[in-house]
Each structure stands twice: as C-alpha cells, then as structure tokens.
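Notebook entry, structure prediction.
Reason for the run: the old model in the group folder had no record of what sequence produced it. Starting over properly, with the input documented here first.
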Amino acid sequence: MSELPAKAPVVNVETQQFWDGTAEGRIDLPRCTQCGLVVWYPRAICPDCHSDALVWETMAGTGTVYSFTVTRAGSGRRWRENLPFVVAYVRLDEGPTMLTNIVDCAAATVTIDMAVTAVFDDTGEGSSLVRFRPS
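New structure, fully documented this time:
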C-alpha cells in the first residue's frame, strides 16, 4: 500500500461491482456486447452506442502512462506529507484510460508510455483505490 491517502469512494448501484472487485485486488469493468467498448467510469449504459447490454470482465491490471503531472503542493496535511506525488492518466491494455496515481517510484522517473501494473490501496471501508506502479 502506498503512503498516499485512500479515502473511501461513494458507491452506487452502477459502481458496486467495480468497488467490490478492487477490495479483492481486481479491476472489473463492464464491456458493451454491442460495440465492444470497455466502459470507464462504470455505468449501466454504454457511452458510445447507448446500449444497456453490458457484461462485467476482469481487466489484466496492466497499462501505460498516457499523461501525468507531478504535484508539489497539497491542500490537506496527509497529501502535503507525501509531496511530491504523481497524478496520471493510465491507459489500460484493454482500452479505457483511468485517472490515478503512480506510486512506488520517484516522481522524476515517471515517463509517458511507461509500463505500469495496478496496485490496490485499501480504504478500510470495503474498497480499495486503484493506483499503479512501474512494471
């Protein structure tokens, strides 16, 4: 688990299966059976073709850094204690791009297209936040 804060998310009927998966160390996302899109952020309707024919699949948990920024100022005490930290968009191998953190490495070593693997930071409330570390 990283040192970054891990506040529990707000869970609803559309995201419950995703958060249940994170608690078990998995990234489960819906895939549209009509157009094939893997849907991020989880929802009941495909944002591409508007079909409700979605099936849940477990992702590999691997991807690449699409874009990132190094944060050098934080507003909360726990965030300030962990400066600098990396906020990044990670493109999963299955297609969707997630906003996340890169952990377990120096901020200066993060690069675009860097291969990363998911890690799960327990919130202590039945879910985990998906973050990534270098592969």
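Summary: The chain has a mean pLDDT of 95.
The old model has been moved to the deprecated folder.
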